[in-house]
Structures are given as C-alpha cells and as structure tokens.
Design brief:
alpha/beta; two-stranded antiparallel ribbon
Length: 271
C-alpha cells in the first residue's frame, strides 16, 4: 500500500503538486479567455453563471491552492498537495461506486503521451471488476479546429482509452495520439453509442473535453486538471463535473504510476 504521506512526498518531488511547470502567466491567460467564453478553454462547458476573472481566480485558489492575489502575475503556479490528495480520494470513491454497480465506463484523454498509462491501468481494473469499458466509434473521423485551421483526426482506443490521432500517424494500437482540448471526440463517441442503441456510459473518466463535454451532456464525469484548465473546476462548482483533481497534467508518464496504485487501493480495485 502507498501511504498518504508517501504519495504527498511523491507529488512534491515529481512536481505534480507544489510549484508546478505551468506558469502563472499561462494560468491567468486561461482565466481571461474563459471569462470571455473563448471556446479554446471552455472544453465543451457552457457555464450557467457569468464567470469573471476575479471569480475564477478565487475559485482556482479554493480548488487548487493557487495564489488569489491578482498582483501575482509571474513565476510558477502552485497546487496544494492536500487538495490533490483530497481530489484523488474523491476520484477513487466514484470509481468504486461505479465498480460496485458494474456500470459501463468510458475513458478518454487529450494527453495521451502523458496520461494514457494512468487511465489504461484504471480501465483494466474496472474491466476486471465487471464494468463494460466502452470503445464506441473507433476509427471515426472528427474535424477539429486547431491552431492552424481545421484538421481531420481519427478516434482510436488503446487498452480501452480513447484518443485522437493526427492524419498520417502510424497504424492504430500505438500511443502516438494527439494533444487536444476539444469536446468533439466524446460527443462523437456518445452519439455512436446512441445510434447503436447501446448502453451509454454511466461514468466518463479523463481530462479536458472528455470530462467537460460529457458533464455538459449530463453524464457523470471525473478527471484530472491543471491550473490552466479552469473549465473542469467551474464544472465541478456548478455540479456538471463530479470530481476535478488538481495536478500538473504534463509531467513524465511514469510519475503518475504511484497515483494509479493509490487510487486503485482507495477504490478497493487493487489486483
């Protein structure tokens, strides 16, 4: 078993929490864009209230532990490890509840280079517990607006985890997915389930548009979010996202393995 103290130490040593690589400038820019309802940072969420920059700064200070001082405009941002631990505990509770009910689950990530292994291990454990791990719309093409215009991506699954691949990327089955914030992949996946008259997921696990896009459609969603991803925390505050775990979502993939062990143990899903 990985103790809470050991995981706290790991979070700080790996810079998953504490001072993180995400800069204060990047986080504040995201809050400004979110307040302006820029779709690049909304991640598929349509907030009920009008969130202004000061509101978002207070929310992120409460949810993540970032500084609530608007005069603090540079340097590394900070995540409180105690909030990360509390988020992981809540995340594990939702997984455990789904496992007990053998609920269908959909996993998806916009950070495949970093987080694929984390989600894949969870998907394996949920499958072993009797939960159908859904893989709808595999191979479906999706047009996503990127920095340099609209590009066509394909939806693929690796070990039960959805991601999108860029045009020309090697054959399906590898981990060379694309980084994306778009909610379109989860919408396409859910539409495919509905068209096939299959069971919709009762839980979506992931990040970025996978969580906010599912939550906006009324499906329970839990996931990981960095300090420059205010949409997940707004979704949590408004009741559309069940759990948003604050941590750096772009460190080395191996650094998430202790989190996997901790979550699976807390959820009573350890093999």
């Amino acid at each position: 078993m990985l103790s809470t103290g050991a995981l706290r130490a790991h979070l700080l040593a790996a810079r998953l929490a504490g001072p993180v690589a995400t800069s204060r400038e990047v986080s504040l820019r995201s809050y400004r864009l979110f307040a302006a309802r820029d779709p690049r940072v909304m991640l598929g969420l349509d907030p009920e209230r009008g969130w202004k920059e000061p509101d978002l700064l207070r929310l992120m200070a409460d949810k993540c532990g970032v500084s609530d001082d608007p005069a603090h405009v540079s340097g590394p941002d900070v995540i409180d490890p105690e909030r990360t631990l509390a988020g992981l505990d809540a995340f594990a509770v939702r997984l455990s509840y789904a496992a007990v009910r053998r609920a269908p689950v959909l996993f998806g990530t916009g950070h495949p280079h970093r987080l694929l292994g984390f989600y894949a291990d969870l998907a394996d454990a949920m499958s072993a517990a009797g939960c159908p791990v859904l893989t709808p719309a595999q191979g479906r093409c999706i047009d996503i607006t990127a920095r340099f215009g609209v590009r066509t991506y394909s939806l693929d699954y690796v070990r039960g985890v959805a991601m999108v691949r860029e045009p020309g990327v090697r054959a399906p089955g590898g981990d060379t997915g694309a980084h994306t914030h778009s909610p379109l992949p989860v919408r396409v996946a859910l539409e495919a389930v509905a068209e096939g008259c299959g069971r919709l997921p009762e839980l979506v696990v992931g990040d970025h548009g996978w969580v906010c896009g599912a939550g906006q459609l009324g499906i329970e969603a839990i996931g990981l979010a960095d300090t420059d991803d205010p949409a997940l925390f707004v979704g949590e505050a408004e009741g559309r996202v069940s759990v948003a775990v604050p941590l750096d979502d772009a460190v080395r993939s191996a650094y998430y393995r202790p989190l996997t062990r901790y979550v699976l143990n807390r959820a009573c899903l350890s093999q």
